[in-house]
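ugh ok fine here u go
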Amino acid sequence: MIDQGLKQFATTGRQAEIIDAISQHGSYRKAATALNCSKGSIQKSVELVKRKAAKQGYSPEHGMVHSVPEPFIVKGHSTLYDKDGNTKLQWVKTTVEDTKLQQMMLEAIEALKEDIPRVKPIAAPKYGNQNLLNCYVITDYHLGMLAWSEETKGGDWDIDIAQDLIIKWFEQAIEQSPSADTAIFAQLSDFLHFDGMDAVTPASKHLLDVDTRFAKLVRSAIRVLRTVIDMLLAKHQKVHVIMADANHDPVSQIWLREWFSGLYENEPRITVDKSPNPYNAFEFGKTALFFHHGHKRKVTNVSEVFAGQFREMFGRTKYAYAHTGHLHSIDVKENNLMIVEQHRTLAPADAYSARGGWLSGRDAKVITYHINFGEVSRLTINSDMLK
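structure:
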């Protein structure tokens, strides 16, 4: 027989039907016959429901009978038994399931976007070379990180220093780069050093050195990114914004994409790539540009993913370039498909990186592409030039 209490955790009508059939007919085999399906499919469906029920605290055969509502899941479960084995007390610890939390945030953003004040269109520059595209690559900026130069030997870093440096970098980059009609702001993520109320990396829970509260970090990120985009609009006819998926701030990149797409909804010269896919692309004439943070695929093996995922674009174009970050150092590989470049960061190393010996220079680049000839020039501005 099956516990009818599992039915409340069924996510599809078919799963509920299977639970009813087992209860009615008394066995998995008879239920499969009644529903004209295999016994294996019955067992698989029940296991899926049991797994979900256990995550939410319901598994009577293990003494768990106190379920929690979505999006919570059970983090810990402790039971005090008396001498006869009867339950006297039970403690259930909960947390919020990451995927459910992200979905809730997306739904909240969609609702709030109706109330976001839209930016009014501003006058476009009078001239821009329609054959050129300037790609501004910023990766691993780690806004909100704390670094002490005496400890890291790489420079001080806090939220005020970071805000000041990136604006200075874009002032110089915009002034010195060619007068191109199109710009890509390739924000390859890890822009925020941490991604929630706890200052830890989302996956490994590695403790991070931070100098601010998350609410202040959110305000700073929005203010800085909006300033940068407005600066780019003043120089270029069209600006395409990419905010890639990454490992330090994956949830924040979701709300940043959605928020900025709503903010600039009435500005036809701005496009924001809202794709949650960790691989992004942009087609510019005969030139294909690809972007990935670098946490899933490396310089040596990311090109085949780009060529496969964006097969039609790759086939239409003659030149192909991919840009990644993540490791904070320069690495360039050319293969039969494209040139893949791993970029440095403008941020200094934190204590963890310095102690591990992971050191690199600090710079960022503007790479200019021609609509027919691929890369034609590049500009590198390092952190020392901005002091």
